[in-house]
Design brief:
The complex is a heterodimer of chains A (about 270) and B (about 200). The model of chain A has no long low-confidence stretch (mean pLDDT about 95). Chain A is of the alpha/beta class and about 270 residues long. Chain A has helices at about 5-25, 35-45, 65-80, 90-105, 125-135, 135-140, 175-185, 205-210, 220-230, 235-265; strands at about 50-55, 85-90, 115-120, 165-170, 190-195, 215. Chain A has one domain (about 30-240): Rossmann fold. Chain B has about 200 residues and is an all-alpha fold. Chain B is built from 7 helices and no strands. In chain B, α3 (about 70-90) packs antiparallel against α4. The longest helix of chain B has about 40 residues, at about 25-65. Chain B is extended, with a radius of gyration of 26 Å. The model of chain B has no long low-confidence stretch (mean pLDDT about 90). The chains are: A alpha/beta (about 270), B mainly alpha (about 200). Chains A and B meet through α1, α4, α5, α8 and α10 of A and α2, α4, α5, α6 and α7 of B.
């Protein structure tokens, strides 16, 4: 088989595998990893009506992987009657954050402005993060819908990070690093993260040092969280396809190496 | 003289911004807020520069007849999205959010998901145990890939534990070394700029 045919065979097999596995609904019983448990316990430990910042620091390209995490986190926060300030440090995260927050808030009968608000996007993320330490209303004078921050009920009594219980950054890159560096230690704020699986190891040193309180990584993390809450969602649904794709890649590595060693032996 | 003025401005700005961090005095806080506002304003203007450069390059390519269709579509997207936002707003149910959900998000997710196919192809064709280093890399990758799969926990606890060990020790040590190196490098560069030793930002120097 020539290389072009091999490539097409791999692409077609992977595509077929993903489509078939996605149509199968399987209820996984997944063991909970320590950081997922820590995130869950932290949100449970918050007093009701605490104000939590949820920052949608990702682009549309990573939506299929980040959305299961953001949905289960928001479900947990709303079910515990926490108040949420949504925002984004990526222009694209604005439309995603606004819609996700609204959808989940409607599920739990939450009222915009009182139980949650979406402040929108600010350019220059470091300046925005630093400025919010002085005054959130000064950095975001208006919310995404154009309402003045000073007139929004949830923003009454919220001046800066002193009134915030935690920041949850949902990121597909290194935006959360800036949250850690500029708010974590300086303002004594707990930073939690929701990341794509490819990014989770980037945050390992911060998790190990405690600078990042806890993290939920990729589809597996979302599925684990859904498992604790007993709310199987997009994470649980995508887990089988992801596992099938990973096993397929492992198989390809093994087959590729067998072929390589055979060829090398033949050359000798 | 002309080269000294920017150096003095840089030194003063660097020292003031460094010292204000340790002060809670209203003057220091007010100054910090002012500088922060300016920082955001300047950054917002750089977005305009980016948009202008994109339009300029696209128009040039269209006039030359190079990738005419792709460039035209991307220019239409650039004009269309702000137009929809300005005319129809950005609330739920607006044409802007419809276009974002049904055009932009699926297209970007599609491009990103193509990576899975390239990874699969590359894993077959390139991920070979050619020498000792490549074998160690391959073994570590397979351990982590298999150990992070929930399915392996049904078989044994050893593989997930081995995965955590790989992540917590060899991988973490390398990452910490890189992070510390970046930190020290950033501090050194910042000090060199503030003290006027690094002058490459002054183009004529």
């Amino acid at each position: 088989m020539n290389s072009q045919r091999t490539r097409w065979a791999i692409f077609a097999s992977l595509f077929a595998l993903m489509v078939i596995s996605y149509t199968i609904t399987l209820k996984w019983k997944i063991p909970t990893s320590p950081y997922i448990q820590k995130s869950y316990e932290f949100i449970n430990s918050l007093p009701p009506s605490s104000v939590v910042i949820v920052s949608f620091d990702h682009e549309a390209s990573s939506l299929p992987e980040i959305q299961p995490i953001s949905q289960i986190i928001l479900r947990h926060l709303f079910s515990r009657n926490q108040r949420i300030i949504g925002m984004s440090l990526f222009a694209e995260g604005t439309a995603i954050g606004y819609q996700t927050l609204n959808k989940l808030a409607n599920e739990y009968g939450k009222k915009y402005g009182e139980d949650y608000v979406f402040l929108g996007f600010k350019p220059q993320h470091i300046a925005a993060i630093l400025g919010m330490g002085e005054s959130i209303k000064q950095v975001f004078p208006q919310d995404y819908l154009g309402n003045y921050s000073t007139e929004i009920p949830i923003m009454q009594g919220v001046e800066n990070y002193q009134q915030i219980a935690a920041v949850i950054s949902l990121a597909d890159g290194d935006r959360t690093v800036q949250w850690i560096e500029y708010t974590g230690k300086k303002h004594g704020l707990k930073i939690l993260g929701g990341f794509t699986a490819a990014m989770i190891t980037t945050y390992d040193p911060y998790l190990s040092s405690g600078q990042l309180y806890s993290a939920i990584g990729g589809i597996v993390g979302a599925a684990e969280y859904e498992g604790i809450l007993g709310l199987p969602g997009k994470g649980n649904r995508a887990l089988l396809s992801q596992t099938a794709a990973h096993l397929f890649i492992v198989l390809l590595v093994i087959v590729g190496n067998i072929a390589y060693f055979r060829k090398r032996r033949g050359e000798k | 003289m002309t080269s000294r003025i920017p150096l003095v401005v840089c030194l003063a700005a660097g020292l003031i911004m460094f010292l204000q961090y340790f002060s809670a005095h209203p003057v220091a806080r007010g100054m910090f807020n002012q500088v922060n506002d300016w920082w955001q304003i300047i950054f917002a203007f750089t977005l305009f520069v980016g948009v202008a450069a994109f339009i300029n390059n696209s128009l040039k390519a269209i006039l030359r007849g190079k990738e005419r269709l792709f460039k035209t579509v991307s220019l239409l997207g650039l004009i269309g999205m702000p137009f929809l936002a300005i005319t129809g707003g950005t609330k739920i149910g607006s044409p802007f959010l419809w276009a974002f959900d049904n055009l932009q998000a699926p297209m970007q997710a599609t491009v990103f998901s193509l990576l899975a196919f390239f990874v699969a192809s590359a894993s077959f064709r390139g991920f070979r145990a050619r020498n000792l280093q490549a074998t160690i890399l391959l073994a570590a990758a397979l351990i982590v890939l298999l150990g992070r799969m929930p399915i392996t926990t049904y078989l044994s606890d050893a593989l997930p534990e081995l995965t955590y060990w790989v992540q917590d020790y060899p991988s973490m040590a390398a990452r910490r070394a890189i992070l510390i190196g970046i930190g020290l490098g950033s501090m050194t560069t910042a000090l060199r700029v503030i003290l006027g030793l690094e002058r490459t930002y002054l183009r004529w120097q």
